[in-house]
Amino acid sequence: MRSAAGLAAVLAMFALLQLGRPEATALASERVGDSTCIACHESRAKGFGKRFEAGAHARAHEDSGLPEGRTCESCHGSGQIHFETNGEEMGDLLDFRDAPAAEGNAVCLECHEDVRDDWSENVHGEEDLSCTSCHTLMNAVSESGHLKTATQAGTCSSCHELDEIEGDFHQRTGGPDQLECSACHPAHGPHDISPEAPIQSSTCLSCHDTISPGFSERHSGTAHAKEHPRAKDLRCESCHGSGSAHVADAGRSGGEDLITFEDVDDVEAANAVCLDCHSGNSWEAWSESVHGEEELACSDCHTLMEKRSESGQLAEATEAATCDTCHTIADLPREFHQRVGKEGEVACSSCHRVHGYIPDPDVLASPGFVGDAACIECHEVLKPGFAEKYDHTLHARVLNETNALTAEMENGCESCHGAGEAHVAAGGGKGVGGFTPFHLETPEAITSSNEACLGCHKGGDRTYWMAGSHDAGNVACTSCHAVMAAISEKNLLKAETEVETCATCHQIQNSRIYRNAHMPLRPGAFQVSTASDGKMTCSSCHQPHGSVTESLMAHISVNDQCLSCHTEKRGPFLWEHAPVPEDCLNCHDPHGGNRRAMLTMTVNRLCQSCHAAFGHPTDPGEPNSRFVVGAACLQCHTQIHGSNHPSGFALTR
After folding, report:
1. Does residue 616 sit in helix, strand or coil?
2. Contact (Cβ atoms closer than 8 angstroms) between residue 547 and residue 553
3. In DSSP terms, which residues pair with 575 in a beta bridge?
4. Does the pLDDT value for residue 4 go beyond 50?
5. What is the pLDDT of residue 334?
6. What is the Rg, in whole angstroms, of the alpha carbon atoms belonging to the chain?
7. pLDDT score for 615
8. Which helix (H) or strand (E) segment is 273 a member of?
9. Is the pLDDT at 68 greater than 70, yes or no?
10. How many CB atoms lie within 10 A of CB 103?
C-alpha cells in the first residue's frame, strides 16, 4: 500500500508539472478525473482511497451504466480550478460539509430519485437538514444506507434521545436483531405514524418475535410468507389491515383497523379478507355452505401464521384431524368413514366440498360426478397398485378434459361407470349406487356394460357386433379386454397375446395349434426363434367384434378367407377339383392337425372318402399292388387343387 500511495503522489506531482506546459493547458478539460482526485487526497489523508473504494458511491460510479460513468465530479462538480490552485481555491467544487442543505440535497436527489417526492413533506426536509447530517459520502461505516454510525438507531439518536421517547416500544430499537427506526418512521417520507402509513412486515415480525420467540421462523414456512402469484406485494397488513395505530401504541391496542384472526368477532369481515385472494370461492357460495351457515371463520380450519400441514395451511397436521375437531369421524355411519384419515386412505374433501354449497353432509363434491381423484384414492386402498396399473392404460390417457374426443369422455372413470355420487355416498361396494357394472355376468349387466363400451367404440369393426355370435352368446367386452390394466402391448387384452386371450374360451381350437402341422399362431415363438410362429393371430381370419358370416370370418366365406393368403389355389382352372371351390374345410383343419398340410385324415383315406377305389391300383383290397405300401394318391395326382394343363383332366399334370 505504501508503494501504491507513493506512486499516486508522484502521478499527482507529474500532473501539476504538466499544467505548466502550453499544450497541456490547451488539452485540459473541465473535469480532472477520479484518479487525480484520489491521488491528491490520498497524499493528504492516508487511507482515503481505500475508505472511498469500500463505499457504495465508488461502486455506483463503476456500475452506473451512464455513457461517461459516475465520477467524483458527478457530485462535487468540476475540480479543475481546485486542482490548478493546488487545493487553495474551491472554484466550482461543491463541499458538502459547508454547502447549504438545499444545494447539497439537490445533488443527492438527482440519483436518489426514489425519495425525491417524499422529501419535501418529511420533517427532516422541513427542518432543512442536509443528507450528510445522517449519511456519510466517503466512508462505509454502516452495513447499509451509508449511515454516519454503525446502526440506524445510533444515527437517529444523534438528534432523538430514544431513551426519553414515550412508549416501551422504542426501547427495543437499536439492539442486535431488533427493530430499526425506519420500520415505523419513514426517514425520507412522512415521519410521524399516521393511520394510513404502511408498516413493513419486518416491523411486525421483529416485534412479535420478542413476544413469541421463533414466530418469524414459523411464519416463514407458510404459503402467506412466500411470494404469491396473485399478490406479489403481500404484507402482514394485506390481511390484518393497517397496523400503524397498533405500532404507535407499542402493541398495547389493536386499533380500529386491525383485524385479528383469533377469536374472530366479525366473521364476515375476516372471511371477506381471505376471499379477496382466494377468489376461487365466492362469498355467495361460501355463505350458502353448511360451514357458512354455521358462521365458521376461515381461521377455524386454517392457520395463517405457521405451517402445520403439508398443504392447505390447515389447523392440524392432516385434513381428517382438522375435520375431526368438529365432526367426530369415529361416530359417523358407514364403514367408509372409518378409512378416512389413516395413512394412504381417503381424505374428507375427496367427497365433500368444504368451501361450497352442501345441502347436507352426504352431498358430494359436485352434482353427480365425484372426479377421478375420489375414485382412485379409495380403490387404491382396497387394491394397492390400482392407480399405477390404471395410469398405464389407454383409458387413463384419453378419458380426461385434455385429451377427450367428446364431452362424455371428460369425466374420467365416470365416463364409463356413470356418475359416482350415490356410490360414494353409500360407502362404496360392488354394484352399489347405480353404477354400470363391469364385473357381473348376468345378461342384464353384460348388456349394460357393453353399451357403455360401444358408446365410444362404435362403427368400423364393431358395426356387426349385434349380429355376431359373441353378442348372441352374452359375451361381455370385459371377457376379452382388461379395462383397468395394461396387460397386452395393444388392444387392452386380458392376456399378453391375442391367441392366449381367445384360448380362455376356445380351448379345443387352441390345443390344435400345438399339433405337428399348424398355422403360425403359437404365441411367443416368433420372438425367440426364426420359425414362423407368431406371425398370425386369431383375428387374421376371424372378426371377433361381429360379422355376417359363419364363425365370425373376416371374409365373406371360408374359401375367400383362405385364398386371401393362398392365392395360388384360387384359379380359375381348366380342370377343377370339385371339393376345392366348394369348401377348403372338406380336406383341411384350419387350426392344425397331425398330418401334413393340416389334412383331416391320411391322403388315401381322404381321397377315397369320395372316390371309389374298386379296380384302382391303390385299392387296399389288393395287398399285392405295388402302389399300396408307402404310396399315396398325390404321387400321381399332383395338381390336387386344379390344373390348367390340356391333358390334366385327372389332375396328374
Report:
1. coil
2. yes
3. 643
4. no
5. 57
6. 47
7. 63
8. helix 267-277
9. no
10. 11
What string of DSSP letters covers 219-260? HHTSTTTSPBTTBTT--HHHHH---HHHHHTTTS---TT---
Q: How far apart are CA 443 and CA 438, in angstroms?
A: 12
pTM: 0.46
Residue 576 reports pLDDT greater than 90: yes
Give rounded-to-5 percent helix, strand, coil for the chain. Answer: 45, 5, 55
Tell me the backbone φ, ψ of residue 39, rounded to 5 degrees.
-60, -40
Answer yes or no: are the C-beta atoms of 211 and 204 closer than 8 Å: no
What span, in angstroms and rounded, lies between the C-alpha atoms of 138 and 649?
Answer: 122
227, amino acid identity: E
User: CA angle, corner 418, sides to 412 and 424, nearest 5?
Assistant: 90
Q: Which residue has the higher pLDDT, 539 or 172?
A: 539
SS3 462: helix
Q: In whole angstroms, give the CA distance from residue 142 to residue 150.
A: 4
Q: Which residues lie below 8 Å from residue 643, measured CB to CB, with a gap of 6+?
A: 573, 574, 575, 649, 651, 652, 653
Strand partners, 493: 481
pLDDT score at 584: 94
Residue 443: its pLDDT value, please? 86
Helix boundaries (H) for 99-172: 101-111, 116-119, 123-126, 152-156
Chain Cα centroid distance, residue 288: 32
Q: Which residue has the cell 345378461?
A: 443
Question: Does residue 25 carry a pLDDT above 50?
Answer: no
What is the arithmetic mean of pLDDT over 195-210? 67
First to last CA, the chain: 116
DSSP code for 311:
S
CA distance 38 to 33: 9
Residue pair 299/264 in contact by the 8 Å Cβ criterion:
yes
Q: Taking a C-beta distance cutoff of 8 angstroms, is the pair 57, 137 a contact?
A: yes
